[in-house]
Amino acid sequence: MPSLGRLHLITDTRPGRDPLAVLRAALPVARTELVVQVRVLDDATDREAYDLACRIVAMCATYGATCLVNDRLHVALAAGAGGGHVGAGDLPVDAARRVLGPTAVLGATSREPVTAAAAVAAGATYLGVGPYRSTTTKDGLPPAIGVAGVRAVAEAVPVPVIAIGGVTVADVAALRAAGAYGVAVVGALSGAADPARATAELLGALTC
């Protein structure tokens, strides 16, 4: 199973964004500490998701980074990704584990201790926990859980907790103190004027 990096970059495929440009800036800086989660818009075709995932898998391989595919596990398998990530509306974690096999990285979304523990028991290797704060990068999210919510989950499970939802570099110290292993970001990198510098700053905060 690939080692899990502390910085998760979720691809921003909204109109006007260039996820590959952001990735080209972030990969040489983060290398093995980067996990790229390929997330596409709901109306994207499987072919579009597959083409993007294949390009990102190849880019990640050059730097030893891990590539996962969110939601569409068949695309993860077809593209040769290191695993996948499932949310509340996707396949149950135990079913996702059967699809991906025993050695793949499998992330699951959680926001409270009971469901978090259940996801780990079902085969999740890490948890994406949040939203930490309100964010506009994804529609239909539940209310923010804050640092206290992240801490509650981190204390309840033995696997890495990745805090997600409006995370900035200024939040990292508090999230790490609350037990988060790492953070997942979208806008903090896709909206940065200098994604390479933003990557370095996030990594510095995560590893200090």
Automatic annotation (TrEMBL):
Mg(2+) binds at residues 71, 90. Keywords: Magnesium, Metal-binding, Thiamine biosynthesis, Transferase. Its EC number is 2.5.1.3. One of its GO terms (cellular component) is cytoplasm. Residues 7-189 form the Thiamine phosphate synthase/TenI domain. SUPFAM superfamilies: Thiamin phosphate synthase (SSF51391). Pfam families: TMP-TENI. 4-amino-2-methyl-5-(diphosphooxymethyl)pyrimidine binds at residues 70, 109, 138. It catalyses: 2-(2-carboxy-4-methylthiazol-5-yl)ethyl phosphate + 4-amino-2-methyl-5-(diphosphooxymethyl)pyrimidine + 2 H(+) = thiamine phosphate + CO2 + diphosphate; 4-methyl-5-(2-phosphooxyethyl)-thiazole + 4-amino-2-methyl-5-(diphosphooxymethyl)pyrimidine + H(+) = thiamine phosphate + diphosphate; 2-[(2R,5Z)-2-carboxy-4-methylthiazol-5(2H)-ylidene]ethyl phosphate + 4-amino-2-methyl-5-(diphosphooxymethyl)pyrimidine + 2 H(+) = thiamine phosphate + CO2 + diphosphate. It comes from the Bacteria. Its cofactor is Mg(2+). InterPro entries: Aldolase_TIM, ThiamineP_synth_sf, ThiamineP_synth_TenI, TMP_synthase. 2-[(2R,5Z)-2-carboxy-4-methylthiazol-5(2H)-ylidene]ethyl phosphate binds at residues 135-137, 166. GO terms for biological process: thiamine biosynthetic process; thiamine diphosphate biosynthetic process. One of its GO terms (molecular function) is magnesium ion binding. Pathway: Cofactor biosynthesis; thiamine diphosphate biosynthesis; thiamine phosphate from 4-amino-2-methyl-5-diphosphomethylpyrimidine and 4-methyl-5-(2-phosphoethyl)-thiazole: step 1/1. Binds 1 Mg(2+) ion per subunit. Condenses 4-methyl-5-(beta-hydroxyethyl)thiazole monophosphate (THZ-P) and 2-methyl-4-amino-5-hydroxymethyl pyrimidine pyrophosphate (HMP-PP) to form thiamine monophosphate (TMP). Belongs to the thiamine-phosphate synthase family. This is Thiamine-phosphate synthase. It comes from Micromonospora endolithica. The gene is thiE.
